[in-house]
Amino acid sequence: MNMNFYMPTKVISGKNCISQNKALFKLGKSCMIVTGASSAIKSGALDDVIDALCENGIEYIVYDKIRENPLLSTCYDGGVIAREFGCDFVVGIGGGSPMDAAKAIAGFIANPDIEPDEIFNIPALNPSVPIILVPTTSGTGSEGNPYSILSLDGKDKKQTFNSPYSYARYAFLDYKYTISLSRNYSLSTALDAFCHCIESYMSPKSTEISRMFALFGAKNIWESFDELDKGDISEQTREALMYASFAGGVAINTTGTGFPHPMGYNLTFHSELPHGRACAVFIGKYVEYQSKCEEGIKLLSDFAAYLGTSPDEIARRLPALAEFTAEIDEETLTMFADKVKTAGNFANAPYKVSYDEMMEIYKDLFVK
């Protein structure tokens, strides 16, 4: 039995957990707060973080340039600004993009002499400065792992910065920061978290512990889909989704993700489809292809049984909730496949999808 597990982040959870634990923000003398354009403000998280920093006498600067699918160059610029301000730790507030960007910026602060793309040469880097993460969505689970998914400028391509020093020192999980999210955003982020859970559970790298997290997360999200679809989301459900998202992030910390993720990235770049929906589009095909081998059938059956459903219902419901239909020409689909064909995600499952099968999936979904 494989029970390996590593999780150095201290998690503080519950409503108002920042205001009740302000002393934990004493990680340095000066802080860069990394956020998006508005979510940190609307959610109230930015005010809570600033209050904690001020009470501890810590100077801060707000870097709110992070957009969805954060650019490597934006993170590099953030590192330059943070060093000029003398920042010695980082707080990331927001969904996956600001939290991923915070990890990269923490790396750039600690490595002043590197060029932007040298951030991926992890063995050559100095340890990142300390990081605190405050999620305002229930989706990526970035607060529970060291992954920083960055978009390469001008390439419609992503690359992962995955330093062992990119784990958050503290992660504050307060569901109240998600209450201001719309139905569409809440649903999309929940789809992302569910994809993390099922793709992690199916991975050959999974352990008994990672599968425990994957099942916990998936069940809570599955039971929330009716409320998410209607847009009438209770505070109890939002709290469950916050913890489910974190559990999915912890699960993929052990395993990584499967092929819906790289295949979905192309839809995000091409059609500006939010990441969670883009991944969910492929879950029907994911279930179909993993059902081509005995191990895949067993794992899918066990996973679905825990949720109180069937693999066929998962395969039907996730793409339906993604609410995306499009016609895409074969030339574009070939370009999609060529961009992601070397991704390790395709081998991260019992049934390994080939390039030709990748093209079959794209054509089945988008060639009418």
- Average pLDDT works out at 96
CATH topology (level 3) name of the largest domain: Dehydroquinate synthase-like, alpha domain
Beta-strand percentage range? 5-15%
Give unreliable regions as ranges.
none
| Total number of beta strands | 8
Please describe the biggest sheet, giving its number of strands, its sense, and whether it closes into a barrel: 6 strands, parallel
What is the gyration radius calculated from CA atoms? 20 Å
Strand order of the largest sheet: 1-8-5-4-2-3
* Tally of alpha and pi helices: 15
SSE run:
EEHHEHEHEEEEHHHHHHHHHHH
Can you tell me the overall shape?
globular
Brief overview, please?
By secondary structure, this protein is α/β, with parallel strands linked by helices.
Key phrases:
368 residues; Dehydroquinate synthase-like, alpha domain; two-stranded antiparallel sheet; 15 helices
